[in-house]
Each structure stands twice: as structure tokens, then as C-alpha cells.
Write a structure and sequence with these properties.
Layout (H helix, E strand, L loop, with lengths): L3 H19 L3 E2 L8 H6 L4 E2 L7 H10 L14 H6 L1
Parallel strand pairs: 1-2
Length: 85
């Protein structure tokens, strides 16, 4: 242990691990298919689609965009760095 600062970091890491394991970030309300990919990349775990929207159309939206140039909340490594590795 280095001191109180190091202890605070450890506590924050434990809190983050618990939040990631037990909580989900859920989008509800007027959720449209074209929003799903962006919401997924920014950390949303679950999206409840608006009434009348087809879940298979939502899945096709994810298949339409298989890769992104910049990193995201889910995959922080940018596309160009993956190609170099």
C-alpha cells in the first residue's frame, strides 16, 4: 500500500466491478432501430424497442455495421490499431 490515494483507487475498482457485474444500462421509451448501434457502442446493455418494431430488423442493423474506425465504450482499441497488431 502506498497510502490513502492507492486505497481509494482500489475501492473505486471494486465498485466499478460490482456495477459492471450486477447492473445494466437499459434504454426504454421511444427507442428506434437506427439508434441501437450507437447506444450499444456507448455502453447500453439492453434496449426495449418501440411498439411495432421488428427485432430481426434490429439485428440486421448490427450486421450492417461490423466495424468502426474509432474505439467505443465496449471496445476501446481503434480499428487502425487492430490492423497493426
Amino acid at each position: 500500500m502506498v497510502g490513502p490515494s492507492f486505497s481509494a483507487v482500489e475501492v473505486l475498482e471494486v465498485i466499478e466491478a460490482v456495477i459492471n457485474k450486477y447492473l445494466e444500462l437499459r434504454a426504454t421509451g421511444d427507442v428506434l432501430i437506427d439508434q441501437l448501434v450507437s447506444m450499444s457502442r456507448t455502453g447500453f446493455d439492453v434496449a426495449v424497442l418501440s411498439d411495432g418494431l421488428d427485432a430481426s430488423a434490429a439485428q440486421r442493423q448490427f450486421e450492417r455495421f461490423p466495424a468502426f474506425y474509432q474505439g467505443s465504450a465496449i471496445d476501446t482499441k481503434p480499428f487502425f490499431a487492430k490492423k497493426a497488431a
